Amino acid sequence: MLDHGAPPQSPQPSAGARLMRRKPVERLVAESGRGEGGSLRRSLGLWQLTMISIGATLGTGIFVVLGEAVPDAGPAVTLSFVIAGLTALFSALSYAELAGTIPVSGSSYSYAYATMGELIAWICGWCLILEYGVSVAAVAVGWGEYLNELLDGTIGVTIPAALSAPPGDGGIFNLPALLVVLLAMAFLLGGARESARANTIMVVVKIAALLLFCVIGVMGFRSGNYENFMPLGMAGVSAAGATLFFSYIGFDAASTAGEEAKNAQRDLPRAIMLSLLIVTALYVLVAAVAVGARPWQRFDGSEAALAGIMKEVTGDAFWGTLLAAGAVIAIASVVLTVLYGQTRILFAMSRDGLVPKAFSRVHAKTGTPRVNTVIVSLFCGVLAAAVPLGQLADATSIGTLFAFALVNVAVVVLRRTRPDMPRTFRLPLSPLLPALGFLFCVWMMSSLDVVTWVVFGIWMAVGLVLYFGYGYRRSRLATSGTS
Predict the structure, then answer these.
(1) Which one-letter DSSP state was computed for residue 132?
(2) pLDDT tens across 417-464, in order?
(3) pLDDT per residue as tens digits for the range 153-164
(4) What pLDDT, on a 0 to 100 scale, did the predictor assign at position 141?
(5) Is 453 helix (H, G, I), strand (E, B) or coil?
(6) Which of 251, 320, 336, 475 could form a disulfide with 184 if both were Cys (CB 3.0 to 4.6 A apart)?
(7) Of 209 and 258, more confident
């Protein structure tokens, strides 16, 4: 018997529609700062946000990856830095517009959620977990070699290879890498303002260390080292650029602090662009001096290449030791700020219901996601202690490039779907510049080796299994009935 008094049933959205469900910008902003059991605190100004981005970026490529990139490109490694920087710049312009328009935690994950739907947002967030989490581990691996340089130059002892290198690099367990991650965790648990203050001090120290290297390195500069500028052709330059893109990971870290910035819409775009310009200028300068002071054939993949050049130029171990001390501080600041970004991305994903609620639980006293920070730190620390640097760096680069490509798409989509939305920064020549950013990202991804693509494919497959097994049904959009 028909019940004519029953209200008509609204049609259920198709599976495809549920995968493309979007979270409106207004809802993202309204929910900003709120976690399970508390809220994040707005305590960061333009200076702190810029230092977070510089802290997350500057040092990684110069102190750690430069020695691996020079054998691929030769003296043209400076050009590789410029190409990687241009790729980052196009994406940075897109980040700057979206950060000023959608001032929330979660970075490109949140931007994708508002523009391209939940499945794409999950894929982007999963790439960011690869970008931030694995880059923390990669940078921590390089920290151990500089720590040994410092210990050798000061007290004449070093940590045994078995305890200072991961399996595959001649060791059993990289203890220093684990220790620097745990040290960063301790700072983060103290609160965003306190960790930002510590990071600012470390950023000033590492900029001073790099400028000192340039001053001393110029004394050993030999123009003959540049005679055969591109010995391995453009393919070598491109391959080195893809590896060195790892050096630019972190300029977007300020966008993960959208819910802890005092004036996010004004300060986030400025912090992103300012940090990228400072970092690129320093990278090119230091790379040019390094190759001028040491023939490119003598770069052997050592993570402590700059300290070695200082010793060669001066003939005095003191200067190499001093640079190693700067590198120890510099790399520690990268670990601190990138680890911060990772926790805030998971915070946003947890608040949306795509990962467990524990990741968005905020401690009442410090205003930080404490459980989130501990879990992420332990995971990254163990990863750093057990996996070689080269494999980590390339895996990080491909995840970052994929996420950046999506950001360039997102800014165009939001321009089309919400053209009248207030924007504190508008990137010029849209959609041309976002298209160039997208194409540069795809080009650099194609330069990475097959093994890196296989690892990336496995990572994405695992991510999709987790999404359909957990997030698809538990997301807040799903449970609230919003499509």
Answers:
(1) I
(2) 888 888 888 888 888 999 998 998 888 788 778 888 888 888 899 999
(3) 788 888 887 777
(4) 74
(5) helix
(6) 336
(7) 209
Computed on alpha carbons and rounded to an integer, the radius of gyration of the chain in Å comes to: 23
- Taking a C-beta distance cutoff of 8 angstroms, is the pair 317, 327 a contact? no
Which tokens in the block code for residue 288? Answer: 């040019």
Closest to 265 (Cα-Cα) out of 420, 418, 46: 46
Q: Give the closest residue to 177 by CA, choosing from 217, 135, 205, 207.
A: 135
Q: Under a CB-based contact definition with an 8 Å cutoff, are residues 370 and 189 in contact?
A: yes
Whole-model pTM: value is: 0.78
- Token pair for 113: 């959620």
Calpha distance 277→297 (Å, rounded): 30
Reported as a pLDDT band with limits 50, 70 and 90, residue 9 is very low
Across 427-442, b (16+ Cβ under 10 Å) vs e yields beebbebbebbbebbe
Length of the chain: 483
What is the Cα–Cα distance from 431 to 413, expressed in whole angstroms? Answer: 10
With 0-12 CB in 10 A as exposed, 13-18 as middle and 19+ as buried, what is 402? Answer: buried
Contact between 253 and 340 (Cβ < 8 Å) = yes
Q: What is the DSSP string of 15-31?
A: HHHHHT----HHHHHHT
pLDDT at residue number 146: 76
Q: Which of 183-187, 251-255, 275-279, 454-458 has the lowest mean pLDDT?
A: 251-255
CA atoms of 218 and 215, how far apart (whole Å) = 6
Q: Are 285 and 78 in contact, with CB atoms under 8 Å apart?
A: no
User: How far is Cα 132 from Cα 376, in angstroms, rounded to an integer?
Assistant: 10
Residue 413: HSE in the Cβ half-sphere, 13 Å Cα cutoff: 16
Say yes or no to pLDDT of 216 above 60: yes
- Please tell me what DSSP assigns to residue 109: H
**Distance separating alpha carbons of residues 101 and 108, to the nearest angstrom:** 12
